[in-house]
């Protein structure tokens, strides 16, 4: 799309004039992916803690199932290798610290939109993860990251002025959440609730997504009881979700 802008018509209440709120494709892309990466860190930390509990209780190889569901290569000889590299290896494109760094890279370019207070939560989370990496800390020591992510999302509503910026951030967040809940076979009611919220953001952003892939998602989500255990549902939903957003750099 080059340097063209995406615009929506907005009516000012004070003088009834019509103005256009515009946003460049590059900024839209950054907002969307900030939302996705921030949510990826938050949700995956929760899921990987459950994986660790399962390994302690009865299944020392539970991390292999985690890799399979997340769709990442299982190249870890032991569970210790998995937790060390998956949490802290910045050279590993699948690691959580890499996702946190990607979130920070986008946030720092968006500091005028999300404000310095929101940026600070992302930056602090990355610092915590890098400090924990030096000691190979366990998941419990990353609770501060979880708390910072909650604070980050909690403060955005009052700090971001642009409705469109908020919608792009929350669209990214909800699509990431939807994908992860599908991958890990969460309850169908929870998946349906996330889908319904995602549709609200899509309805306000008709210019940023593929109608073809949205129709596919709609078809897959039909019915009161989703077949979440079906491998085809998982595969088809993940493919459609990751093809839905059409603005790229």
Give me the secondary-structure topology.
Blueprint: E1 6-11, E2 18-23, H1 25-57, H2 62-70, H3 79-88, H4 96-109, H5 111-135, H6 143-159, H7 163-183, H8 188-204, H9 211-220, H10 231-244
Antiparallel strand pairs: 1-2
Helix pairs in contact: 1-4, 1-6, 1-7, 4-5, 5-6, 7-8, 7-10, 9-10
Describe the structure.
With 249 residues, the chain is mainly alpha-helical. Helix content is 68%, strand content 5%. The chain contains 10 helices and 2 strands, in the order ββαααααααααα. It has helices at residues 25-57, 62-70, 79-88, 96-109, 111-135, 143-159, 163-183, 188-204, 211-220, 231-244; strands at 6-11, 18-23. The chain has a two-stranded antiparallel sheet. The longest helix has 33 residues, at 25-57. It is globular. 33% of the residues are buried.
Write a compact overview of the structure shown:
This protein is mainly alpha-helical. The protein has helices at residues 25-57, 62-70, 79-88, 96-109, 111-135, 143-159, 163-183, 188-204, 211-220, 231-244; strands spanning 6-11, 18-23.
What attributes characterize this protein structure?
249 residues, mainly alpha, two-stranded antiparallel ribbon, 10 helices, 2 strands, 68% helix, globular, disordered N terminus
Average pLDDT: 88
What structural class should be given to the helix and strand makeup? mainly alpha
Strand composition percent: under 5%
3D shape: globular
């Amino acid at each position: 799309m080059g340097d063209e802008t995406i615009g929506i018509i907005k009516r000012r209440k004070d003088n009834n004039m019509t103005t256009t709120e515009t946003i460049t494709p590059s900024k839209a892309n950054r907002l969307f992916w900030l939302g996705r990466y921030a949510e990826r860190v938050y949700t995956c930390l929760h899921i990987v803690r459950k994986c660790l509990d399962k390994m302690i209780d009865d299944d020392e190889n539970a991390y292999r199932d985690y890799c399979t569901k997340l769709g990442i290569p299982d190249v870890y000889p032991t569970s210790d290798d998995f937790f060390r590299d998956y949490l802290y290896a910045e050279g590993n494109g699948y690691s959580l610290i890499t996702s946190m760094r990607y979130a920070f890279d986008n946030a720092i370019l968006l500091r005028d939109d999300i404000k310095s207070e929101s940026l600070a939560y992302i930056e602090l989370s990355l610092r915590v993860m890098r400090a924990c990496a030096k000691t190979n800390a366990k998941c419990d020591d990353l609770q501060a990251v979880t708390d910072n992510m909650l604070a980050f999302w909690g403060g955005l509503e009052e700090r971001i002025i642009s409705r469109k910026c908020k919608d792009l951030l929350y669209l990214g967040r909800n699509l990431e959440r939807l994908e992860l809940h599908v991958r890990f076979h969460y309850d169908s009611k929870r998946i349906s609730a996330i889908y319904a919220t995602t549709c609200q953001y899509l309805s306000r952003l008709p210019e940023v997504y593929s109608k073809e892939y949205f129709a596919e998602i709609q078809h897959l989500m039909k019915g009161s009881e989703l077949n979440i255990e079906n491998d085809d549902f998982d595969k088809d939903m993940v493919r459609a979700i990751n093809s839905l957003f059409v603005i790229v750099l």
